[in-house]
Write a structure and sequence with these properties.
The complex is a heterodimer of chains A (491) and B (477).
Chain A (H helix, E strand, L loop, with lengths): L2 H18 L5 H19 L2 H4 L8 E9 L4 E7 L1 H20 L8 H20 L3 H10 L1 H11 L4 H34 L6 H4 L6 H18 L8 H8 L2 H26 L1 H27 L4 H22 L2 H32 L10 H4 L1 H15 L5 H16 L1 H26 L16 H19 L2 H17 L3
Antiparallel strand pairs in A: 1-2
Chain B lengths: L6 H27 L7 H22 L2 E3 L4 E3 L1 H27 L5 H19 L3 H19 L6 H32 L4 H9 L6 H17 L8 H8 L2 H24 L6 H23 L5 H22 L2 H28 L10 H4 L1 H15 L5 H15 L3 H26 L14 H19 L2 H11 L2
Antiparallel strand pairs in B: 1-2
Helix pairs in contact in B: 1-2, 1-4, 2-3, 2-4, 3-4, 3-10, 3-13, 3-18, 3-19, 4-5, 4-10, 5-6, 5-10, 6-7, 6-8, 6-9, 8-10, 8-11, 9-10, 9-12, 10-12, 10-13, 11-12, 11-17, 12-13, 12-16, 12-17, 13-15, 13-16, 13-18, 13-19, 15-17, 15-18, 16-17, 16-18
The chains are: A mainly alpha (491), B mainly alpha (477).
């Protein structure tokens, strides 16, 4: 059965069908989009059990000629790393759609059309094993996200949408030149032109070539992550995006950058990557500390969550910089963790915003008294994000630190500082919004979480606890690909 | 020379003859039948194009062959470009129908001139003799001079025509001067003889260099590449929109065919002399086109500057100097036809040319706005569109040639271009419409043109193999 193709095609078919539904029938549009995305989750979830953890290489591989004269194929497949990210995407898609049920009242059909197209692009990226196909999906997600921010975003949406778009494209055109050069160099070595990842991995590129290509790829992926100093698009885009946009942006789109490192940069250019490791580590630590410090100064609830992504993605890239099994496995797991906990935070900020139409931290305080269930969920989200033991964030960060510690103790020591700062700004945020007296009368009548809102946060809460309490199954999935990659990197 | 005029000669000329014949028929019917004929002109133009297509297909069966002792070379290259001309002329004719009615300039000459211009373009793609080429170029250019001024009551249109005429005539003169030097070198106007004469001299022979300088000036003017691009923004903006589309696509692509014929044919051995010239022209075109487009508020003018930038990418393919580069030029030319005609079809469909006219288009006509996004994404060069495939090949050619810096420069300008193309998207989707703007019904012609260009732009991006195969055959020498 062409399982992965079905999974990939579902949102695209859903998109095409959605275009045929009249725009006035907003109920039908909402139902259809939610049904399609839930169907995608139902289709993706069994991959978890069907996936053979003991087998190496890629599984469920499907191959079709696409552009024979270039040697590009439609080639999809998953290993443990992409499995986790595909599942994360399949989960966050319906969560984002469900969270937008009431929040999006304008241009409903266009909104869900963009959501479905985005889902198609995101899934395609994690499934591709052909580099040209990968690049097509890398670019494909930009247009729907541009519209999500630009049409349904906050006050400065036009600025934020364009900034996001231009930043990412500026990086990805350099990535494109890198891909073309890799295709050419690899083709010379292998004697035939191909974009197939496993084929290109066989080419022995000279270090000099690797170096150029690594930094070209680096620019594309580092802007996407984003790593300091390319992070300035992030706070604007995340803050201005509608809740669904923020969830998918933080939950999935950022992972495209780190995934690009894991899937392409590190295995294809191992020698150059090893050389670059200190630079990556320093940039990561800078992101961890700088992002956390900026969070301490934020007045805007959503902007604080946005900046926290800079800091947390710093951990993911630090794990990559360690380039050993612990660092890599921790990094991938932390990508999933960040997708869960930051999505929770963005959802909750979104729900408060829907009720109060303000995001200023100063407008809140004592919400725990009027919205106890909300406060509970928010507490779990904050603890998960801060890396409290028994929740998912802890195990990810801990493994990354283990990996970094072996390579360079100073890296680990500096990053621990980031954890302390992270706990500080997150707990302080919790204190200022949830605890204390109910200072603002406007908050007295706020309703607690509705059933629909519960439905969006429960699966994420469950995962946060499950990963935190018993991380073994997640590492088991990652073990083989991570060891293989670490072997390639000589660590 | 036993035969002065053979069947093969006739066969080689037939497409041009048909185009000219139908063009004259349009003039004549308009003259004889007057007002009544005007509704039926399209019924005369489209069969003319269909017959031309039939002849091109027949030529394709026995190509390559030469005619008139080598003055015409009917090969895959020439046919490739002629099919593109045919597609262009057909779509322009469809697009013009309602437009001319609205502008109240529904005159018979219009369609006749469209066909005449294509007849001239025919020789640019298949001509391998200087006089033939020059006559073809002038037939095309004179048709365009008239077409540019077709809105007689519009001052801008008249200004555009006059500017184009004066500068165009000047550039033709320079080109003719270059041709005369080539004739002086070879004592013949046939490409084969010129190639031998130029090949016998060093690349930097003063006369060869002088010929290259003058010929490139003339050709670069026609493809609107810097530093001979000055006319393009004014003429594109002032000319009737349907004519702008024809000028931006037909004239440019025909001149690219001419450039390839000249520089890879008789001047091929002097590559060392002309390559730096084209390289500078390409980089300056990219820079001028992309940077000047950033601040435009008139979409026609914006597309004019973007077309200068596209000329830069086409030239980069030539500069790369390998087979991939030539393929890249052919693919890029095809993609350029699809996406540029599509973008102009949208402008004609909404009867607007200022950015503000597009405000709120997504609300009024979502399908048109969505199509425009596809064209703009393609013009910028992002996947999965035809424009990406063209750019991909150009970059690949540059990298194969070891010109990494040029590839990077070209790539970075993609990001710059995206900024101005997405200003248009922003107007359509993110800005509210002005008060009282009504939804404009699309004419059948615009619908067809949008459909065809949309499917081709997206189709050639998602599944580029047929276009690649076709282009590969075209430049196989």
């Amino acid at each position: 059965m062409p399982w992965l193709t079905a999974l990939l095609a579902l949102p695209l078919v859903g998109f095409v069908v959605l275009l045929a539904i009249p725009g006035r029938a907003t109920g039908a549009v909402r139902l259809w989009a939610n049904a399609v995305l839930l169907g995608g989750l139902a289709l993706a979830a069994p991959l978890w059990t069907a996936f053979d953890r003991s087998a190496g290489g890629y599984q469920f591989v499907e191959r079709m000629p696409w552009i024979p004269s270039l040697g590009a194929q439609y080639l999809v497949g998953i290993d443990g790393i992409s499995l986790l990210l595909v599942l994360l995407t399949a989960l966050l898609g319906p969560v984002a759609a469900l969270a937008s049920w009431n929040a999006i009242a304008e241009r409903v059909k266009e909104f869900y059309a963009m959501l479905l197209l985005l889902q198609f692009g995101m899934l395609g990226l994690f499934l591709s094993l052909d580099i040209l196909l990968f690049f097509v999906f890398f670019e494909l997600v930009l247009v729907p996200m541009y519209f999500l921010i630009g049409i349904w975003g906050g006050e400065r949406r036009l600025y934020a949408a364009m900034k996001f778009f231009l930043y990412t494209v500026a990086g990805s055109v350099v990535l494109l030149v890198g891909i073309v050069a890799l295709y050419w160099q690899g083709g010379q070595q292998l004697g035939r032109a191909t974009f197939e990842l496993t084929e290109l991995l066989r080419a022995q590129l000279p270090v000099e070539t690797q170096r150029w290509l690594f930094w070209a790829f680096f620019l594309g992926f580092a802007i996407k992550v984003p790593m300091v100093p390319f992070h300035t698009w992030l706070p604007d885009a995340h803050t201005e995006a509608p809740t669904a946009g923020s969830v998918l942006l933080a939950g999935v789109l950022l992972k495209m950058g780190t995934y690009g490192f894991v899937r392409l940069s590190l295995p294809l250019f191992p020698d150059a990557a090893r050389e670059a490791a200190p630079v990556l580590a320093v940039l990561s630590i800078a992101a961890i500390l700088y992002g956390a410090l900026i969070c301490l100064a934020q007045q805007d609830w959503k902007r604080l969550v946005a900046y926290s992504s800079v800091s947390h993605m710093g951990f993911c890239t630090l794990g990559l910089a360690a380039m050993n099994a612990n660092g890599l496995a921790g990094s991938v797991l932390q990508q999933v963790n960040h997708g869960i906990s930051t999505s929770l935070l963005f959802l909750l900020v979104g729900y408060v915003y829907e009720r109060r139409h303000t995001r200023q931290i100063a407008d809140f305080g004592g919400l725990a008294m009027v919205m106890p269930r909300f406060a509970f969920v928010f507490a779990v989200a904050v603890f998960s994000s801060a890396g409290l033991p028994l929740l998912n964030g802890f195990i990810g960060e801990f493994t990354i630190l283990q990996g970094a510690f072996v390579v360079n103790r100073a890296w680990a020591a500096a990053a621990v500082g980031g954890i302390v700062l992270g706990a500080a700004y997150l707990l302080w945020l919790y204190q200022r919004t949830m605890l204390g007296d109910l200072r603002n009368e406007a908050n007295r009548e706020l309703p607690d979480l509705t059933a629909r809102e519960w439905a969006t946060v429960l699966p994420l809460l469950g995962l946060a606890v499950a990963i935190g309490v018993y991380p073994q199954p997640w590492f088991a999935v990652l073990e083989r690909p991570v060891l293989e990659l670490a072997g390639r990197l000589g660590r | 020379m036993s035969h002065f005029y053979t069947d093969v000669d006739h066969f080689a000329l037939l497409p041009a003859i048909l185009l000219a014949l139908f063009g004259c028929a349009v003039f004549l019917f308009d003259f004889l039948l007057g007002e009544r004929s005007r509704r039926w002109q399209l019924a005369l133009v489209l069969p003319g194009l269909a017959l031309t297509g039939w002849q091109l297909a027949r030529q394709g069966e026995i190509a390559p062959f030469t005619a008139f002792h080598g003055a015409l070379t009917i090969d895959a290259f020439g046919l490739f470009f002629n099919w593109l001309f045919l597609l262009t002329a057909g779509l322009v004719a469809l697009l013009s129908y309602r437009y001319l009615e609205v502008e109240q300039e529904h005159q018979g000459e219009y369609y006749g001139l469209v066909l005449m211009a294509q007849a001239g373009a025919y020789f640019l793609a298949v001509g391998t003799e200087l006089i033939t080429i020059f006559v073809g170029l002038e037939t095309m250019s004179i048709s365009f001079y008239v077409l540019a001024g077709f809105l007689r009551r519009s001052r801008r249109s008249n200004e555009a025509a006059l500017k184009y005429l004066l500068l165009g005539a000047f550039s033709s003169g320079i080109l003719a001067y270059g041709f005369s030097i080539l004739y002086g070198l070879a004592g013949s106007t046939y490409f084969a003889d010129i190639a031998a004469a130029v090949g016998a001299r060093p690349a930097f022979d003063p006369l060869t260099v002088l010929a290259i300088l003058t010929v490139s000036a003339g050709v670069l003017f026609k493809i609107a590449a810097a530093p001979f691009h000055m006319w393009a923004p004014d003429v594109y903006e002032g000319a009737p929109t349907a004519v702008t589309a024809y000028l931006a696509v037909g004239s440019k692509i025909a001149s690219v065919a001419l450039l390839l014929r000249l520089f890879l044919g008789p001047l091929g051995t002097a590559r060392a002399a002309w390559e730096p010239l084209l390289l500078v022209a390409a980089v300056v075109s990219l820079t001028v086109g992309n940077l000047a487009a950033l601040t435009q508020t008139n979409v026609k003018r914006l597309l004019a500057y973007s077309s200068i930038a596209h000329a830069g990418y086409l030239l980069l393919g030539v500069v790369a100097g390998n087979a991939t580069g030539l393929r890249g030029v052919a693919i890029y030319a095809g993609a350029y036809v699809f996406m540029t005609l599509g973008a102009f079809a949208v402008l004609l469909g909404v009867h607007g040319e200022e950015l503000g006219d597009l405000n709120g288009l997504a609300r009024r006509q979502p399908a048109v706005a969505a199509a425009m996004v596809v064209f703009l994404v393609s013009l910028a060069g992002l996947p999965p569109t035809a424009g990406f495939v063209g750019k991909y090949y150009v970059f690949l050619a540059l990298i194969e040639a070891g010109r990494y810096v040029l590839a990077l420069v070209g790539a970075v300008y993609v990001a710059v271009a995206l900024f101005y193309y997405f200003r248009v998207v922003r107007c359509m989707f993110l800005e509210p419409a002005a008060e009282g703007v009504a939804r404009v019904g699309l004419s059948a012609g615009v619908r067809v043109a949008l459909g065809v260009t949309g499917v081709l732009t997206l189709g050639a991006g998602v599944y580029p193999e047929p276009l690649l195969q076709w282009a590969v055959r075209a430049v196989l020498k």
